[in-house]
Design goal:
The structure is a single chain. By secondary structure, this protein is of the alpha+beta class. The protein contains ten helices and 18 strands. It has helices at 2-43, 52-64, 139-155, 177-183, 186-189, 244-262, 300-320, 344-358, 397-406, 422-440, and strands at 68-73, 85-92, 97-103, 122-124, 130-132, 162-169, 195-206, 210-211, 215-218, 220-229, 233-234, 269-278, 284-285, 288-297, 330-337, 340-342, 363-364, 387-395. An eight-stranded mixed β-sheet has the order 1-2-6-3-7-18-8-17, with helices on both faces. The longest helix is centred in the N-terminal third of the chain and has 42 residues, at 2-43. It is elongated, with a radius of gyration of 25 Å. The structure holds zinc ion (2 copies). Residues 103, 137, 139, 172, 200 line the site of one zinc ion. One zinc ion is lined by residues 103, 137, 139, 172, 200.
Length: 443
């Protein structure tokens, strides 16, 4: 008995190694084609709401691998926009349903990386204005990594069971893509997942590593338009006016007390006034001032409380300035994105699998959370479906080291200079995603 278990102990790491070797060998075999796919996608980025060619390519590749593919999914508020969502399903016996998401869209950024495959694309944005376009958020890395993972998993069908759902999500950058998919009955037309996974590159983590944040990882984002109305007049005769510039100034200062005085220090929140516009010249008191705010929180009740505070502060400042009730401020709240909550139990389960695949030192288990936002959270249906985003290191380790030691700039996401290291980032992305899916769907 003792001998047998000793033998088992000796054999287990060998078996794990053999399996790992074969995944590595498969990645080696496919690397040249992965790199050419990545460079092709990088050189041909498309803006949110316009991912026509990208989605067709993504769908075509998955069809070749034997997935059942549905294209043009997603219903936006603006009915003129086509939903370019792609859902690819592979059924492989009884077992859990696992969804893995990639985004399809790029950004209105003019690329300045100087890489040979840099984008020179210009295209019209939603407003009809021509802009430069770049995959400055690495969604080309995510697509390539997911396609290569799909190929491996279609060859490794004897090692997993259940239903694999690969999702090409449009319009992540505009924050409305995941909602558009759900509005188009994503989870009734296709199997609702038991787990949802996404990979996102992160420039401040070294390529070769992954990391994650258990619990709240990214904030919800809400945009607010605040229209402060007064009664305009001559700049030399303030007594005949109700000056909205002064009220706006008071409101901007009073808004600072929401986070500092009304909110628990244990609940992260941000209220930022990003834009303020009023008036036309020196000696005219304008009729109105317009402000644009962003609010970031993790918890929904905190978000609701902050939105109510903004309205209360704006209205009371106008009232105390003597602005009549029919000229009270107008507060318009636009839904942005929900927060991203990484299910801690799911991450506990995935950690050993990722450590086996990548080496313990390459798995950072507690990356600090951020107040940036992402719309992947919607796919968890308010935390009902265990979900997680896994950060994929993307930068040259030497540059990350220099950045940490000397503060040397390291181009971040959405930067015109963001250039992930393709080969090892793709390799790590494929290994990590394969390990996660095989863990969740193992036989
Ligand atoms: Zn982005
Ligand atoms: Zn992104």
């Amino acid at each position: 008995m003792r001998k047998a278990s000793l033998l088992l102990c000796l054999l287990l790491p060998l078996a794990a190694n053999a399996q790992q070797l074969s995944v590595d060998a498969m990645i080696d075999r496919d690397m040249a084609s992965m790199l050419s796919t990545y460079k092709m996608l990088h050189a041909a980025p498309e803006l949110s709401h316009r991912e026509e060619k990208t989605s067709a390519f993504f769908a075509g590749e998955l069809k070749k691998l034997g997935f059942t593919v549905t294209e043009r999914l997603g219903k936006f508020e603006n009915a003129e926009w086509t939903g370019y969502g792609v859902v690819a399903v592979m059924k492989n016996g009884n077992g859990p349903t696992v969804l893995v998401r990639t985004e399809l869209d790029a950004l209105p950024v003019e690329e300045k990386t100087g890489v040979p495959y840099a984008s020179k694309v210009r295209a019209k944005n939603d407003a009809g204005v021509e802009v430069a376009v770049m995959h400055a958020c690495g969604h080309d890395i995510h697509m390539t990594s997911l396609l290569a993972t799909a190929k491996l998993l279609s060859e490794l069908k004897s090692q997993w069971q259940g239903t694999l759902v690969l999702l090409g999500q449009p319009s992540e950058e505009t924050g409305d893509g995941a909602r558009a998919l759900l509005k188009d009955s994503l989870y009734t037309r296709f199997p609702q997942p038991d787990f949802a996974i996404a990979l996102h590159d992160k420039p401040d983590i070294e390529t070769g590593k992954v990391g994650y944040t258990p619990g709240y990882a990214m904030a919800s984002a809400t945009s607010i338009d605040l229209n402060i109305r007064g009664i305009g007049g001559h700049g030399s005769a303030p007594e005949t006016t109700k000056d909205p510039v002064v009220v706006a100034a008071q409101v901007v200062m009073a808004l600072q007390t929401i986070v500092s005085r009304e909110n628990s220090p244990l609940d992260p929140a941000v209220v930022t006034v990003g834009s303020i516009h009023g008036g036309t010249r020196y000696n005219i008191i304008p009729d109105e001032v317009n402000l644009q705010l962003t609010v970031r929180t993790y918890k929904e009740d905190v978000r609701q409380r902050i939105l109510a505070s903004i309205e209360r502060i704006a209205k009371s400042a106008a009232m105390s300035a003597g602005i009549p009730a029919d000229r009270a401020p107008i507060v318009k709240v636009s839904e942005g994105t929900t927060s991203t909550y990484n299910d801690p139990k799911l991450l506990e389960r995935l950690t050993p699998a990722l450590q086996r695949a990548l080496g313990e030192e390459n798995v950072l288990v507690k990356v600090p959370p951020m107040m940036a936002s992402e719309d992947f959270g919607y796919l968890s249906l308010d935390h009902k479906i265990p979900a997680t985003i896994i950060w994929l290191g993307a930068s040259d380790p030497q540059k990350v080291k220099q950045h940490r030691e000397t503060g040397a700039p390291l181009p971040g996401l959405h930067s015109a200079l963001f250039a992930p290291v393709p080969e090892s980032t793709l390799r790590t992305g494929v290994k990590a995603t394969t390990a996660v899916v095989l863990e969740l769907m193992k036989k």
